[in-house]
Specification:
single chain; 161 residues; mainly alpha; Ferritin; 5 helices; elongated
Length: 161
């Protein structure tokens, strides 16, 4: 493992956190790509508002992925975010590439945000159990943003009341 830039955590905990961070990195990168897939292809009533929202959401997700990746490196690991690693490691259901209706994209994205949000909440628990408060706090920050963006996207659903 490369040099760590923290003290007070044993190597085993750092290894475990790096693995956890890389698993979440794959999920958030996959989610970012799903958001961009929708952004590029959606059509229908309310297009411009949802199109612009998805650009903002993708930018926030990119910031989260950067924070996650940097934490892995700070802990003495390597950030693993290539297309090949993400394709192999992400558990998020593959995003449909043949849909265009805003309503279908909203539902597909909402489902994936809820799924990734659950993964990140489990990462909070794992980091807490390992005693890495900083990594748990990072995951908490990411979780809050994913939940907020799930709300922003889901509020565009005709099913939303």
């Amino acid at each position: 493992m490369p040099e760590a830039f923290i003290s007070g955590e044993d190597a085993q905990t750092r290894h475990k956190m790096v693995d956890l961070l890389n698993a979440s990195l794959s999920e958030t990168i996959a989610l970012t790509l799903a958001v961009k897939q929708a952004h590029w292809n959606l059509k229908g009533q309310g297009f411009i508002g949802v199109h612009e929202l998805l650009d903002d959401v993708a930018e926030r997700l990119r910031e989260s992925t950067d924070t996650i990746a940097e934490r892995a490196v700070i802990l003495g690991g390597l950030a693993k975010g290539t297309a090949e690693v993400v394709a192999e490691g992400a558990k998020m259901e593959a995003y449909p590439t043949e849909i265009t209706a805003i309503e279908e994209h909203v539902e597909a994205l909402k489902d994936r945000f809820l799924s990734v949000g659950e993964v990140v909440r489990k990462a909070i628990e794992a980091a807490d159990e390992a005693g890495d408060d900083d990594t748990a706090d990072l995951f908490t920050e990411v979780s809050r943003q994913i939940d907020k963006d799930a709300w922003f996207i889901g509020a565009n659903s005709p099913k939303s009341k």
